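Example complex used in Figure S2.
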Amino acid sequence: MGASATQRAIDAVWRIESARLIAGLTRIVRNVAIAEDLAQDALVAALEQWPESGIPDKPGAWLMATAKRRGIDALRRRTTLERKQELIGRELETLQQLDQPDLAAQVDEVEDDVLRLVFMTCHPVLSQEARVALTLRLLGGLSTPEIARALLLSEGTVAQRIVRAKHTLAEARVPFEVPGRDELADRLSAVLEVIYLIFNEGYAATSGEHWTRPSLCEDALRLGRILAALMPREPEVHGLLALMELQASRLRARVGPRGEPVLLDDQDRARWDRLLVQRGLAALARAENLSRALGPYTLQAAVAACHARPRSGEETDWPRIVALYDALAALTGSPVVELNRAVAVTRAFGPEAALELVDSLTDEPALRRYHLLPSVRGDVLARLGRLDEAREEFARAAALCDNAREHELLLSRAAASGA
Amino acid sequence: MRFMVLVPGSPESERGDMPSTELFEAMTKYNEELVKAGVMLAGDGLRPTSEGAKVRFDGGERTVIDGPFTEAAKEIVAGYWIWQCASRDEAIEWLRRAPFDDGTEIELRPIAELDDFDEELTPELREANERLREQADARS
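Predicted assembly (559 residues):
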């Protein structure tokens, strides 16, 4: 194997092993920043040694053993140099733990560690942006440049965000644990939110040229699948996974040949990904079997399933979609959900009923700068034949929209309404 | 990126023998790891070729050939996986960990995404493709 082939193989090993490695080390040293440094040291050692020695049979175990050895060396060196006599308790403890036989070799333990790490990187003490960056980095195995590219940020910004996040976790003494029963629901919903945020960042890129960035969707799907394996009894984990699989099944159909967005009604259903549809429906069935009261992600997945099941758009069960949005609105009280409900009402019961709903939302402060409100209102008005008003709404929507591609789509709808 | 991993047959798989308990356990564990890592999207084993058939196309003529197929067992597909990985290198690294032995060679192939055919796939072809799928669905 040539040097560059080995380098690429090491990158691949890192992608596979880094989350488990960092999780296992965090359990030992109780500090995610130190754990990541040790893991990085092990990676450097691999880069030095593997081109010569070849890739070991159990690369994960090799990296773990090396990281622990480096940790012990570093601590010993520091303590002999500086304060031989007064090893502070924390470091002594760490040293002893690093010296223990490798308990992490027990698979179940490693998986529990990964789950603890998930709850740590999505901890509410961190800002939403910090949770996203840290989760991609520590659980997704993405490098800082990869994260920067995916989130359309500078490398410096991402690096700083990650350093600060690790610092905040240490300052706040966030424990490395799966939250207890009383906290679990809230903390889990924070985790799901982070994963869905990553997915959405890829699915409907909120700014910039590209309408979808599928690799970010794949990263989110992978995190969702990992979480579903770690927490198989949690209905909303399957609900979120179902939602993402079903939405991702339409990724290819959502973008036209020149990179322009294609809306659901106009999508070529032959381009929907059948394997992902099937996986999404299976995950939805698991979520529905685990709980009678459907949570917000499961409800949204059920809506997505209403679109995925029929062979043509005309067969879509719009009244059921309205009912699902009713349930979702009752659960979340979100005006965005109300807006979605208005779209479904247009299709189920006609534009008059929908216009009334949309108009009741125009004073909603949360929607004031939301481009989809005028966009939906424009669509309803166009269906009512009120084309001048529709054009104004589409133009207003375009002015509020950051995404270049979507902006174009809205302008073209405005132009079409004028014709 | 998606990959198909093609597992070749063996005299045992062609006889329809179950794998040894040992191999079965190793394979189950490996599959679990793939699922837990969010890599495995699908996978199945195939029944022996004695239960399969081939259709030979020649001009307008169609000839049905019943299994078993006579080529060497290792040229027969006995199972497959579909994986989603970040790169070809990652897929190779996963495959390296599979519990095979005895000189078995396992083939790893990137799946062509529909977009790869964008140039060739005219709207008419697409429509035909859609109709085919609908018929396939109606039958399943």
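The longest helix of chain B spans residues 123-139. The two ends of chain B are 28 Å apart (CA to CA).
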